[in-house]
TrEMBL record:
<dbReference type="InterPro" id="IPR040338">
    <property type="entry name" value="At1g67623-like"/>
</dbReference>
<feature type="domain" description="At2g35280-like TPR">
    <location>
        <begin position="49"/>
        <end position="141"/>
    </location>
</feature>
<dbReference type="InterPro" id="IPR057136">
    <property type="entry name" value="At2g35280_TPR_dom"/>
</dbReference>
<feature type="region of interest" description="Disordered">
    <location>
        <begin position="1"/>
        <end position="25"/>
    </location>
</feature>
<protein>
    <recommendedName>
        <fullName>At2g35280-like TPR domain-containing protein</fullName>
    </recommendedName>
</protein>
<dbReference type="Pfam" id="PF23310">
    <property type="entry name" value="TPR_27"/>
</dbReference>
Amino acid sequence: MGEEMSVNNYNNNPSSDSSNNDHSSSDPNIYFRNLSMAFFVAHPMEFLTKHKRLREECLKHGNLEGHYIEGILQFFVEKDKNKGFFHLRQAAIGGYRDGWYLSGLLMLALERFYKGEKYLDKLQWKTNLSVSDHCKARVLKTLSTICGIMNAGYYTAMVNLECLTKCDQKNSSNHICDECYYYKQLKEFVLFAMNQYN
């Protein structure tokens, strides 16, 4: 699996059909919808500040990575949760796995536990934890480029979810089960966000 699912391999959307990468068509709908945004996933602030026209075209034509990046920018930079969730949902609905992961994580962080679990369950982590782990690594790598992502409510959500988690080993680093998976994902995110804040 090596480089295929690497944290640094942003040009890997396992849910998309790789045979669909021929951009020889002059139809802008097809071109902008399928254009790889891998660079901007790794550097989302570039998408916000230097490439406004490209950003607009990709969003207009339904580019999943574009919606994912826009969701991150709206949620964490512009502090507009509604627009952020709109774009993250567009990416998730289209099958962009990092969109599922981040949407689920943010739902947990906002104490919408049921919805958060539903998004995370789309990654089928119960049968293949590595997909979820790779999404987490890529999401956190992207978020590491943005300052000030912590919100005090995230910590409260983590404490509340810990109380609801019925697993004696929830604080063990090498144990994961149906009961503690969601809590552990949220805890890692909160600790990451707190470190980003300093």
